[in-house]
TrEMBL record:
Gene3D superfamilies: Trypsin-like serine proteases. Pfam families: Pro_Al_protease, Trypsin. Residues 372-399 are annotated as: Disordered. The chain crosses the membrane at residues 418-438. Residues 389-399 have a biased composition (Low complexity). It comes from Streptomyces rochei. This is S1 family peptidase. Residues 197-353 form the Peptidase S1 domain. Residues 102-154 form the Peptidase S1A alpha-lytic prodomain domain.
Length: 456
């Protein structure tokens, strides 16, 4: 009975090892067949693909039959539609459809009515695609009378305008990700851009008017550059020309703290529900989700429209700092409320709009494994960016050195690479060899016992 059990265990182990070899071989074959030679080292997520699918459907179906799109919790694109016929078309296209009551045309009409009302500093509104509402927020500085008047206006628009009071105050975050300083205060450098002949820092417009001189240290010993163009309020972006005209090595990297940086490979537009990262000279690297688009904020200094609303925290000094996702540049920090202890809402100036208005393009890195290319043009999207040590400060010439931030273990465990398949093959081979060795050892011992019993 004991020998029978041993034989059964050995047989099962051999079968499992052979099955593992077959499975590992299949995984390696599929990975080699599907992965291009210049695939990014950083695991790719589906947020950009889902966003592109949703945006394409909304564009084709129109504002009267749709009400925005977002990335669902499962990573699939979701499109808000106003009727079942349109919902069927969305589902046939491979996206999820949510039937809502109000179209995008109605939502934007509501925001136009709010914008035409008397301006109330400390208020903000944005289109919440998921709830099919226009959300109006008032901070702690808004008086009871002003809030009551705004509530009456919202009631006249319709029941899809939701009023909310929020803590703190909506302010610009003057005072990224490296700090730049001037007499106006402290901000964070955003992204490096170029007009083809000179290089610039694209940062927030409220950081300082045209002519502001920026330094990279508190002593004023290292001049970074001078603000040569910008827009605030209305928009919130500005252009700081480097003092020597060049961004230097590491221009495609944004600092994230701890001597590390992220390579930026392109520029794009975010989607509601997408996970994003923000870096700033005060609070460092923070992450969160895009909660709304086309947001309007009534700062004390003036009204800014067309912003990206997120639940990422920010603090004074983070203004102008970069927001990105998967190595793609999305925007620069404008303002918000709260802090990084309690959380809050932060708004960002979209990058494509700012670059188009300023006539510049992004200084971006080529994808890993690809030949060097020209800087990404306006609106172009790049592959996922890789973290690397040595993020460059504004005006610095320190290159990005060292290996990619993705470790060997993360590459081996990434199911899209050949690593997992090789691990399965190696483990199965070891198991098969072990079972053969155990059987041979048992046969050798049995022969010795037989020999001893036969010949004494």
């Amino acid at each position: 009975m004991r020998h029978a059990r041993r034989r059964m265990v050995r047989r099962v182990a051999r079968l499992a090892a052979v099955g593992g070899l077959l499975l590992g071989g299949t995984m390696v074959t599929r990975a080699v067949a599907s992965e291009p030679p210049d695939a990014p080292a950083v695991p790719y997520t589906s947020a950009r693909a889902a966003s592109g699918t949703g945006a394409g459907l909304v564009s084709r179906l129109g504002a009267d039959r749709t009400a925005g799109h977002w990335v669902g919790s499962d990573g699939r694109p979701v499109v808000a539609v106003t009727d079942e016929g349109t919902a069927a078309r969305v589902r046939r296209a491979g996206a999820e459809a949510k039937v809502v009551r109000h179209s995008m045309a109605e939502l934007k009409s509501a925001t136009e009515a709010l914008r035409s009302a008397p301006r109330v500093p400390g208020t903000a509104w944005a289109l919440d695609y998921r709830s099919n509402e226009v959300v109006v927020r008032g901070d702690s500085t808004v008086s009871r009378d002003d809030w009551s008047r705004l509530t009456d206006i919202a009631s006249g628009i319709g029941g899809f305008v939701r009023m909310e009071r929020t803590e703190g105050a909506f302010t610009t975050r003057l005072n990224g990700a490296e700090p730049i300083l001037s007499t106006a205060g402290r901000c964070s450098a955003g992204f490096n851009v170029t007009d083809g002949s000179d290089d610039f820092i694209l940062t927030a417009g409220h950081c300082g008017p045209t002519g502001s001189v920026w330094f990279g240290d508190e002593g004023g010993d290292r001049q970074v550059g001078r603000t040569v163009a910008g827009s605030f309020p209305g928009d919130d972006f500005s252009l700081v020309e480097y003092a020597d005209g060049e961004a230097g090595e590491g221009a495609e990297v944004v600092a994230v703290g701890g001597g590390k940086g992220v390579r930026i490979t392109g520029v794009g537009e975010p989607a509601v529900g997408q996970r994003v990262f923000r870096s700033g000279s005060t609070s460092g690297l923070r992450d969160g989700r895009v909660t709304a688009l086309e947001a309007t904020v009534n700062y004390p200094e003036g009204t800014v429209t067309g912003l990206i609303e997120t639940d990422v925290c920010a603090e004074p000094g983070d203004s102008g700092g970069p927001m990105f996702s998967e190595g793609v540049a999305l925007g620069v920090t404008s303002g918000g409320n709260g802090d990084c202890d309690k959380g809050g809402t932060t708004f960002f100036q979209p990058l494509p709009e700012a670059m188009e208005a300023l006539g510049v393009r992004l200084l971006a890195a080529a994808r890993e494994g690809a030949a060097p290319s020209a800087p990404a043009a306006n609106g172009g999207e790049g592959a996922g960016g890789a973290t690397a040590p040595g993020g460059a400060a504004p005006g610095a010439t320190a290159p990005v050195t060292g290996v990619d931030g993705s470790t060997l273990l993360s590459r081996l465990t990434d199911r899209r690479n050949v690593g997992p398949g090789l691990l399965v093959v190696a483990g199965s081979t070891v198991a098969l060899v072990a079972t053969r060795w155990i059987r041979a050892e048992q046969d050798r011992k049995a022969y010795r016992r037989h020999y001893s019993a036969t010949w004494g």
